[in-house]
Amino acid sequence: MTVAAAIVLYHPTEEIFQNIDSFYREDIPLIVVDNTPDPDIRIYQKLQQHYNNLIYIANKENIGIATALNIACNKALELNCNWILTMDQDSCFINFSDYLQCLYRLQKESELALIAPNTMWHAKEHLPQKVGCSAEERFLVITSGNFLNLQYYSEVGGFDDNLFIDMVDHAYCMKLQERDLKILFLKEIMVEHSLGVLHKRKNLITGKIRNKIEHSPQRVYYITRNSFYLYRKYAKKFPKEFNLLKTLNIMFIHEVTKIILYEDQKAKKLYAKLLGFFHFLIGKYGKYEL
Prior knowledge:
The protein is α/β, with parallel strands linked by helices. The protein folds into two domains: 3-192, Alpha-Beta Complex (Spore Coat Polysaccharide Biosynthesis Protein SpsA, Chain A); 197-282, no CATH class. 39% of the residues lie in helices and 22% in strands. It is built from nine helices and eleven strands. It has helices spanning 15-21, 41-50, 65-78, 96-106, 150-156, 168-178, 217-234, 244-262, 266-282; strands at 3-9, 30-34, 54-58, 83-88, 92-93, 112-120, 135-137, 146-149, 182-192, 197-202, 209-214. Strands 1, 2, 3, 4, 5, 6, 7, 8 and 9 form a nine-stranded mixed beta sheet that branches. A two-stranded antiparallel ribbon has the order 10-11. It starts with a strand and ends in an 8-residue tail after the last helix.
């Protein structure tokens, strides 16, 4: 079994080196796909100095997470790798050595297409004293920290370039589910990962302060458009998970209520949501800047 590791960059900071160090191994090729339009030469030079097995690919434009991941996976296939680790630049492993041991133990399981860790805030606080490879099947997982079986990656056609960013991980999982392939979640493998920007916000009606995850108007656009895209593509085969009423409820009742009651940039986010829905209706996908 041969493994590669991939990380997608977009305007990275010095924090990236700590995050890479959490999973870096001398015997694992490190594929860095940089989506920064004007890459920081200092970051590039430091990457070269720190990592002997670096493969650096500068796109010099933001081509989106889906296309960047496809580039990384195809490079790993060129290197005759069987598995690839997919990392976000803001994710950091707590116990990567345990994860590798689990991969070696599980990799021969039949129809195993993806292994996912437990990603959360304050992950170190949740690390069990004794770590095993206890696994459970999941329907959907997020991309960061996953090991992908490259054989099945090739068979299902990779990540969906239509989506650009957001819901890219869910779309890939759906390709696996269509083929009845296996997604395993390892709850004892911990990854520190932020699932959005957390803010303390006051409810406009009750005045109560709550912690709320917020996204920028640009992300609101992509999340809305791509959520309806997944509904259209997978509702027939998976009506429980992707049906119109459920998608409308989440996107235009739950999310709109949260924006109105708690978030800032209300007008911009509501506009982004409506525009995302309109672009879904007319079939406009890929990159779009508000």
